TrEMBL record:
Source organism per UniProt: marine sediment metagenome
Keywords: Metal-binding
Alphabetical list of InterPro entries matching this protein: DgoD-like, Enolase-like_C_sf, Enolase_C-like
Gene3D superfamilies: Enolase-like C-terminal domain
One of the Pfam families matching this protein, by short name: MR_MLE_C
Family from the record: Belongs to the mandelate racemase/muconate lactonizing enzyme family.
Protein name from the UniProt record: Enolase C-terminal domain-containing protein
GO molecular function per UniProt: metal ion binding
Enolase C-terminal domain residues: 3-137
Length: 184
């Protein structure tokens, strides 16, 4: 392994069979990045990867990122929360998802020399959230915090998820109860 934790998207998106072949032989987890943009992409690639990289900017926001996480866990995929070069605003939102993740790659604001905002703080190798409610962003007028999400809709229509057992998670105020579509 030589200290390598994972290999991210080692082959082009359309090379699913080849990626699956590599995954079966690799001692290091293979993680999808470009292969998924939404939760609907996961069933087609699930057997080729050990995990998926969720990026808020690519998925469209926290709601779809949560859908992606639910579907990924349903297919026994590990989760990485990643980013592109993004300000503290986006990273502070992404940090909210860290309890879901096996891996974090949230270095976006560390690569920006003129980030005008202050949010989650990177200290001693960890993202630390402010004590205030919401995502803790400073420097934007009119943001008083973001309230909790009551429930996550929209995953039942994803092809390949029918009959899969949902995991029970407790992420702050949000709970996802274990249930089967058949009503067990």
């Amino acid at each position: 392994k030589q200290g390598v934790e994972l290999i991210e998207q080692p082959m082009p998106v359309d090379m699913i069979k080849e990626t699956k072949w590599l995954r079966e032989r690799s001692p290091v987890p293979i993680v999808a990045d470009e292969a998924i943009n939404t939760s609907k992409d996961i069933p087609a690639i699930a057997e080729a990867y050990d995990g998926i990289n969720i990026k808020l900017m690519k998925s469209g926001g926290i709601l779809e990122a949560l859908r992606i996480a639910i579907v990924a866990k349903t297919f026994n995929l590990d989760i990485m929360i990643g980013c592109m070069i993004e300000s503290s605003v986006a990273i502070s939102a992404a940090v909210q998802l860290q309890p879901l993740a096996r891996w974090l790659d949230l270095d976006g604001p560390l690569l920006i020399s003129n980030d005008p905002y202050k949010g989650a703080e990177f200290r001693d190798g960890h993202w630390i959230m402010p004590e205030e409610p919401g995502i803790g962003i400073k420097g934007i007028k009119g943001i008083d915090g973001i309230e909790g999400i009551d429930g996550i809709d929209g995953i039942d229509g994803i092809e390949g998820i029918e009959g899969k057992k949902r995991k029970k998670w407790n992420i702050g105020m949000m709970e996802y109860w274990e249930e089967r579509k058949s009503g067990e």
